[in-house]
Amino acid sequence: MALNRRYVFAQRPHGMPTGEEFELVEEAMPSPGRNQALIRSCYLSVDPYMRGRMREGPSYAPPWQVGESPTAGAVGRVEASDIVGLPVGSLVAGTWDWAEYVLSDGHGLRRLDPSGAPPQAALGVLGMPGLTAYFGTFDVARPRAGDTFVVSAAAGAVGSLAGQLAKQAGCRVVGIAGTKEKIDFLREELAFDAAVDYRAEGDLKGALRDACPTGVDAYFDNVGGAVTAAVAPLMNTHGRVAVCGQIATYNQTRREPPDVAWDLVGRRLRIEGFLVSDFQPRFAEALARLEHWVLSGRLRYRETIVEGFERMPEALVGLFKGSNFGKQVVKVYAP
Amino acid sequence: MALNRRYVFAQRPHGMPTGEEFELVEEAMPSPGRNQALIRSCYLSVDPYMRGRMREGPSYAPPWQVGESPTAGAVGRVEASDIVGLPVGSLVAGTWDWAEYVLSDGHGLRRLDPSGAPPQAALGVLGMPGLTAYFGTFDVARPRAGDTFVVSAAAGAVGSLAGQLAKQAGCRVVGIAGTKEKIDFLREELAFDAAVDYRAEGDLKGALRDACPTGVDAYFDNVGGAVTAAVAPLMNTHGRVAVCGQIATYNQTRREPPDVAWDLVGRRLRIEGFLVSDFQPRFAEALARLEHWVLSGRLRYRETIVEGFERMPEALVGLFKGSNFGKQVVKVYAP
After folding, report:
1. How far apart are CA B10 and CA B24, in angstroms?
2. Which of A95, A105, B109, B233 is most buried (CB neighbours < 10 A)?
């Protein structure tokens, strides 16, 4: 009898996760009942927000429970189906357990068009990260032509898209990233106006000042911490800060005070956190635009594809070390 | 020959001002030339923002220069005039030097109606503090009926008005202040729903939690520092913070990191600094409403009137010690 494999969340990390938090277990292959489908995972997504779910206590997303399977954004192929309109062979995107095979009642599944973008794009540019970049840029950071727009984690899944959207809106875009390869990508492939390597620069504030000679009008922040502290003094009057993530702080074992000198009153800054889920009613509108821009070549994206279900924990841990380039996904099975 | 008296800014303070920063000097009485008026100061305003002007370096308002006279919001009486439409005896409000008599070309003067509110109200509820409360509340904090609205420095010139405006908008209003007398005033005279004494409470966070059992939807912040750090963890999802002032930090000799744990992303907070001057085009609209509310008794205000021009420095220093109650003004001469 064929076996299924899944991960169980075995223990909460203290500080930086090691991968030991997840245990791979075998179980009987599930069998779909009435109005159910059996889906084979093709791609599973790993994302920074997952660090929050590893933590106990209240947050916007409920914490993963020890002993249960964690969930992920996922793309899969329908292998057996008793659901009308969901034939065997369909490609679908959704959220399900870290498992090779899952059962679904069809709820929350989105069918993918096999003639469109590659299916795993539904986990990146045409999924949660793309939507996050879209709403964070247009609705929160609000770029205006001529603005200097700075983005941190600029070679990441969200940052690389936010910067390109701001560029389309006529901004001067400055990216911050952590390797020479990423900096080259931002400058050469994405045509950012400047890119600053926060790891290589001895004087990050000075390097940012040089990259932003007229100050910063909008800052799309994915990281927090020391990078954000270096951007803060450059904010112009009526500057906007879209706070998307704070990955620099996710693995802190105790909260360190963010020594960020926002001149809130003098510069009349607006600092606003957001979650993509709040924009759910407008997802269809945004996905249609993003897909058009991707297919027409106006929006570029990178993926880091890690091969093999058994590498899920490693792929997730890599996010917190900056080892991903663009969207990090795990390929479980080629559809 | 009659002499005029004025203050000269003699030295920049280090930390808390002592009053020694200002030197009282005598000079010949000024004499108005063509298209000029001689104005006698009746009331001069002292305000927290003046601490910023005592500091060197760029800010939204240019720093006071050592050896020159500081300026203040002021109400005066026209004593001699060669300006058409500005007869002797007119009461005017404007901004001018810390002096008993000043010359004016009429620019920036607002004539006061002697049958309306008392003239010094033009420095408080019907002046800059009133406008600050109005725009900070309605345009930045944006109260909604049913919201819990917290205001710091709640017995001050701005805070006492912001809380009342939020109350009018249907909020549950909680004030934070630093003496029993102020707390009683907030509860009894202004009918705030709760008031917390930040000096008397051993456990400020706990006291605020009790005062805000359903969390905080909007926070009108005049102080920053430890008070704001205690409010931060209570902010509800989509909470708004209108940052009006940070008086707790104005006299710091070195910047202390504000250990404020805003859950920016998880709670999707908006933190926005503002300056009343940005709303200048709408001042007339706001003043008309404020005056209507004052004259109809819907908006109450307190003043601390210090008598005597020679007490200007003392009145200013008192602001940073919380010795004012409501709007602090100096009465120079009864019109």
Report:
1. 9
2. B109
Q: How far is CA B308 from CA A192, A295, B315, B325, in A?
A: 61, 75, 10, 18
CB A31 within 8 A of CB A59: no
Q: Is A272 in Cβ contact with B268 (below 8 Å)?
A: yes
| Residue-by-residue pLDDT tens, chain A, 335 positions | 689 999 999 999 999 999 999 999 999 999 999 999 999 999 999 999 999 999 987 777 789 999 999 999 999 999 999 999 999 999 999 999 999 999 999 999 999 998 889 999 999 999 999 999 999 999 999 999 999 999 999 999 999 999 999 999 999 999 999 999 999 999 999 999 999 999 999 999 999 999 999 999 999 999 999 999 999 999 999 999 999 988 887 777 766 656 788 999 999 999 999 999 999 999 999 999 999 999 999 999 999 999 999 999 999 999 998 888 899 999 999 88
Just give the CATH number of A3-124+302-331. Answer: 3.90.180.10
Tokens 């192929």, residue?
A77
Residue B252 contacts A, CB cutoff 8 Å: no
- CATH says B128-278 is which class? alpha beta
Domain pair A3-124+302-331 / A128-278, same fold: no
Residue among A248, A273, A269 nearest A258 (CA): A248
Angstroms from A21 CA to nearest CA on chain B:
23
Q: Say what the alpha-carbon torsion angle B63, B69, B71, B75 is, to the nearest 10 degrees.
A: 180
Query: Which residues on chain A are in Cβ contact (under 8 Å) with B237?
Result: 60
Domain boundaries, chain B: 3-124+302-331, 128-278
Per the listing, tokens 């002096």 go with B99
The answer to whether the Cβ–Cβ distance between B269 and A273 falls below 8 Å is yes
Residue showing tokens 């504000």: B258
Give the integer Cα–Cα distance in Å for A331 and B196.
Answer: 56
Chain A residue with minimal CA distance to B265?
A: A273
Report the C-alpha gap between A314 and A55 in whole angstroms: 18
Q: What does the longest C-alpha to C-alpha distance in chain B come to?
A: 69
Phi, psi of A254 (to 5 degrees): -135, 150
Query: Does A62 reach chain B within 8 Å, measured CB to CB?
Result: no
Residue pair A286/B291 in contact (Cβ under 8 Å)? The answer is: no
The percent of chain A in helix, strand and coil, each rounded to the nearest 5, is 30, 30, 45
Reported for B290-295, long-range contacts at CB under 8 A and 24+ positions apart, including other chains, are B290/B125, B290/B126, B290/B130, B290/B131, B290/B134, B291/B116, B291/B117, B291/B126, B293/B168, B294/B117, B294/B121, B294/B125, B294/B126, B295/B116, B295/B117
Question: What is the rounded distance in angstroms from the CA atom of residue A115 to the CA atom of residue B94?
Answer: 70
Contact A334, A43 (CB under 8 A): no
* Interface residue of A158, A235, A268, A276 to substitute, partner B, most B CBs within 10 Å: A268
Q: What pTM was computed for the model? A: 0.90
Phi-psi map region of B139: left, alpha, beta (phi>0 left; psi -120 to 50 alpha):
alpha
Inter-chain touch B270–A269, beta carbons under 8 Å: no
Search chain A and give the residue with CA nearest B237: A60
